[in-house]
Amino acid sequence: MIAVDTNVLVYAYREDGAHHAQAVAALQDLVSGPPPWAVPVQCPSDRVEGDPAIR
Fold it and tell me: Which of the four, 2, 17, 19, 22, has the lowest number of CB atoms within 10 Å?
């Protein structure tokens, strides 16, 4: 099982980021590949709790 890190999701979402293309490519490879993968349950809360604009 491959757990996707919160940072990879954020990098893939933020098109203006320096790591955007790499993160999108990594997620596309992961989704189309054979190993099982998941987004850990704490990932969405990591982003919300870590973003002062959302608090």
Answer: 2
For residues 1 and 13, give the distance between their C-alpha atoms in angstroms, rounded to a whole number.
22
Which contiguous run of DSSP H or E holds residue 3?
Answer: strand 2-3
- Comparing CA positions, the residue from 52, 45, 47 lying closest to residue 12 is 47
Q: Are 12 and 24 in contact (CB under 8 A)?
A: yes
Instruction: Report pLDDT digits (tens) over 18-35.
Output: 999 999 999 999 999 888
| Distance of alpha carbon 15 from alpha carbon 35, whole angstroms | 26
Cβ neighbourhood burial of 25 (10 Å; 0-12, 13-18, 19+): exposed
